[in-house]
Design a protein that fits this description.
- This protein is of the alpha+beta class.
- It has helices at about 65-70, 95-100, 130, 145-155, 165-170, 180-190, 195; strands spanning about 1-5, 10-15, 20-25, 25-30, 40-45, 105-110, 115-120, 135-145, 205-210, 220, 230-240, 240-245, 250, 260-265.
- The strands form 3 sheets. Strands 1-14-5-11-12-13-10 form a 7-stranded mixed sheet, with no helix packed on it.
- It is globular.
Amino acid sequence: MEYRGVISKMLTEFASPVQYYLPVNDGRINMNELLNSQISISWLNEIHCLNCGKLTKKSFAQGNCYPCFISIPETEDCVLRPELCKAHEGIARDMEWATKHCLQDHFVYLALSSALKVGVTRKSQIPTRWIDQGASKAIKFAQTPNRYIAGLIEVELKKHLTDKTNWRHMLTNKIAEDTDIMVQKMHIASLLPFEIQQYVCLDNTVTDIEYPNISYPIKVTSMDLEKEAQITGRLTAIKGQYLILDNEKVINIRKYGGYLVAVSI
């Protein structure tokens, strides 16, 4: 069976294991059902902007043409650097969008995907954000009324933690399992200035996340749809936004938002 269409990042449902669905045009493929099956993905030499739908020679910020990239609120600087958010000052590309996405409760969190890392997300994006990063465990660290304050706290925590994921370790399931993230939360909170400590979340629930897998590879090679005529293999695991194949090849689906592809199963 072959599916042809424009793809975007995989949709997820929090379950044990996480349920994954690959959007293709207006339909979607249940990827969990393909575990242990042979699949192939080919790029059909077109990229469509996920925002306006126009053809583009290059994708910016995971699925946008350049005019949309420099104009839509979803690609403002504060998306990657929350401390740069100015929505609380009434400054944004689109204040209606910012009110719904920036001037809402945010969480600073700790996640264990390879080593312990810090991140920021809207309340409504938990646990989706953790899943997309391939976190095996996560805990809420602080709760804030807007994105800006969450960004300031993240900057402070980056003095003690990384905000990056070692994607190779994450995909080979090399996790610092001996890390007690609740203990780490308490320790790091004690190091912070008082004005930040007031936002520390009292909820110490640790969320465990299980991903669909038959096995994890010893090492991985990231494949590029624009350089490979066809990416083929047996699907052995799905983690974060990656498909992991039995030949140690992996593909980051989120990277190819807007790409027109053929998926054969």
